Amino acid sequence: MPYKTIIEPFRIKTVEPIKMTTRENRELFMRHAHYNPFLLTSDQVLIDFLTDSGTSAMSSEQWAGVMRGDESYAGASSWRKMHAAVENLTGMPFVLPTHQGRAAERILYGHLGGAGKTFISNTHFDTTRANIEFSGAEAIDIVIEEGKNPALQHPFKGNMDVKKLEQLILEKGPENIGGVILTVTNNSGGGQPVSLKNALEVSEICDKYNVYLFLDCCRVAENAYFIKHREPEFSHLSYKEIAQRMFALADGAVMSAKKDALVNMGGFLSLRDDQLAEDCKNLLIITEGYTTYGGLSGRDMEALAIGLEEVFDPDYLHYRIRSTAYLGEALHAMGVPVMMPIGGHAVYVDAKSFYPQIPSHEYPGQALACELYMEGGVRSCEIGSVMFGKYDAEGKLIPAPMELVRLAIPRRVYTQSHIEYVLEVFENLLKGKEKVKGMKITREPKFLRHFTSHFERL
To answer: What residue ranges do the domains of the chain occupy?
Structure first.
């Protein structure tokens, strides 16, 4: 009989102190950060749910690997271990190491993109879209309609709309499609999983029109957990076997290893086509580093190889998914509108429903992220019209499909008492939420504005 309490399947060997702050402190810190949580310093934050990228706690085995790291410039043994781990997982013979996922995106999509090219995804994440658009290409999102309704229950809200996919390929012309990108799990769409059946259908369409299919696979282990427990025909497979089946459908994969490889830095691009790999290697050498390190130290590659094995451990994955669900389900029970069902790496709060009085052009997600920090020192990330909004020809905001705030939970970092504290903070936010007003942008860059924009409260 399973117990109700979710225990962390590890013991804690090393601790890092958290600096306590007051509401008065945090209001001052937020003003100095121009109401942008990205501009806060880490010592001003109590619970950091800004991102799960690079914020994991490494295992004792990974730290042992750090000490074994081979720092040779070319042909290091640590590189051979990383290459073997990636090839074993993806089944792809050509592996290019990069310092993180966006470097792999820039190399691949910069090479295949350019003016007149189109990339199609269930949902492009921010850096993916930015790298594609920076090349001059177009990025189009076609997640299923169910994935656009935060309150709707559906087992695979990250799925790609295969009917729209085929229509777009025919409309744009197969020769103008730079690639189809399946993001697993669908981060910008609420951390929702993609079914193996959907991946197979997408692959068949790409094969039919001779179009590249790439996996954005930074949370592929978490996605495999949902497949095993929600697609009965694959329940007999291990988590790693499920991931391998998904990789077998793709022509290439981009990974920020800072997520499901459980490391603080690293990534890779893996490919099947030797000519495409050769072209990308040239770009890698020019901009990142030699082909056997790509901007990574030997110790990073060693830890990455170990993390790719540890992440598929059943006890770890059960704890990871259930502990995230614990936070989301508790918030839902107290009346906080959250994306349902709960995703793998984060809980997404529906800021539009939380603050119905704030219109999209006044950025309800940014307002909630600021209130959450000032109330309890919890840093989060807006995933709405700040991150994905655009302006039309008259300068009017075209809002994002959803206004979300992501509570991204670092892996193996926080305990249940930290989660209980976050729940108390939300209880307090509910009490005065009708009085909260929106935000306006006072300064913004051309690309990825959510990282450095300045805001004012209205």
So the answer is: 23-52+313-457, 60-310
